[in-house]
Amino acid sequence: MIGLIIVSHSKMLADGLLQLAEQMQNKQNCQIITAAGVDDEAHPIGTDAVKVMEAIEALSEASSIILLMDLGSALLSAETALDLIDPVLAEKVHLCSAPLVEGTIAITAAASGGASIDTILAEARQALQAKQQQLNDNVTVTPKKEIEHNSFSEAAIKTHWVVRNPAGLHIRPAAKLASQLSSFKARLELHNGQKQADAKSMNQIALLQVKKGDKITLIAEGSDSQAAIAAFEQLAQQNFGDDVNSTSHTILIGKAAYIPTVTGLAYHWTPSIELIESSHQGSKNEITKATQAFEQLKSQLNTLADTLTEQYGKSIADIFRGHSLLLDDDDIIGSVKQKIENEEITAYAAILAIFNEMSEQYQQLDDAYLQARFIDIDDLKKQLLMSISSQTAKTLTLAEPTIILSDNLGPSELVRNQNTMIAGIALAKGSPYSHTSIIAAKMGIPMLVNLGENIINIPDHIKITLSTEDSSLTIN
């Protein structure tokens, strides 16, 4: 039996991931435990080495134990736990660098099918390949182990199946298929057109990108090949565990009863104040400044999230808990410290450089949703620099309905300035996929983004109309 421990900063995240993994778990072959969060009701986000240690000890009967960590201090907690346990038990433990979600599913599927620990870890480390290939990322796909696709003998047998699953062989059916076939000794190869995959590997099945209507072929050769074919055909008849009838929906089409068109006075707002970098006070002092700024902002974000839970619900609050988690990433604070030491610069300059680099990396992404996260990075940068500079953010004072005009707007800048007189928001930049847009929608504030630099020419206090019906901003 293989033991898997999910080590995460968030108990809710780990519990949700456990629920997902249970859909493909064979508990005789794979046991899963979470070691997530900390016992602090006010600020439950974090990791605890003692929890990890207790989870390892609970799985002491397993032949091997895999620890899968999300980020930052989760790895530190895992390593600390290994120092606390019996050395003989520690030898069973494998720290795995796979991504948390994909790695959990890959480990669960492979372990549930009875795969060896080496195969399980290999599956986990390759777990991102299917997604990367589908998104055309520049990734080198790990070659399949010594598979020569034309080397089957005349004794090989095959069967065909036209896939009926609406989403094709996505992660769950791929995991079920790999788990079902992994116990057979026969060599099993799955074909989709010109692509081939080891039918015992969930990751390789996913890389086939099998869609509804594709005709797939299973080729089997070995002592139990006939039994493997029969098992495949039985699972295929069951649509690989999917309910193909549950995905149909009744769609009713109507007309919107209300389309937000609002009028108000134009007001140009520059949320950020002018920050002045202080002189360098020695690397040790500058590192202390940076560390304190990170800790202070994490605390503020957690407090803000608690407040927003009551106002707008968990989904909005989780945006800021996510920001706090980002600041808990050892790689980020480590990069800031390293830059301070290596270049002998101020904490202000180091934070500015590291976060500008991160922002640029997000802006270069092709995925519009991920690209929009540069706005969050810029927002965090501004808050850290204000903390370093001992400055307080500006807040809005409005007496009548107003449409805010700005270059861009971060999530924290919006929630800090909740005001019933904000009739709408118009941004020169921004993104419809940004967290700022999501929060504005929750607040019921109509918002337009990507209007271009011409909004700078709109005079203050003139009456303007914002319409989300045709995405227009009109000077009245």
UniProtKB/TrEMBL annotation:
Principal EC category: transferase
Species of origin: Providencia burhodogranariea DSM 19968
UniProt domain HPr: residue ranges: 156-243
PANTHER family in the record: PEP-DEPENDENT DIHYDROXYACETONE KINASE, PHOSPHORYL DONOR SUBUNIT DHAM
Keyword Secreted attached: no
Organism placement in taxonomy: Bacteria, Pseudomonadati, Pseudomonadota, Gammaproteobacteria, Enterobacterales
Listed EC numbers: 2.7.1.121
PROSITE patterns, alphabetized: PTS_EIIA_TYPE_4, PTS_HPR_DOM
Chain ranges passing through the membrane: none
GO cellular component terms listed in the entry, alphabetical order: membrane
Pfam families named among the record's database cross-references: EIIA-man, PEP-utilisers_N, PEP-utilizers, PTS-HPr
GO molecular function: phosphoenolpyruvate-glycerone phosphotransferase activity
Gene3D superfamilies: HPr-like (3.30.1340.10), Phosphohistidine domain (3.50.30.10), Phosphotransferase system, mannose-type IIA component (3.40.50.510), PtsI, HPr-binding domain (1.10.274.10)
Subunit and partners: Homodimer. The dihydroxyacetone kinase complex is composed of a homodimer of DhaM, a homodimer of DhaK and the subunit DhaL.
Protein name: phosphoenolpyruvate--glycerone phosphotransferase
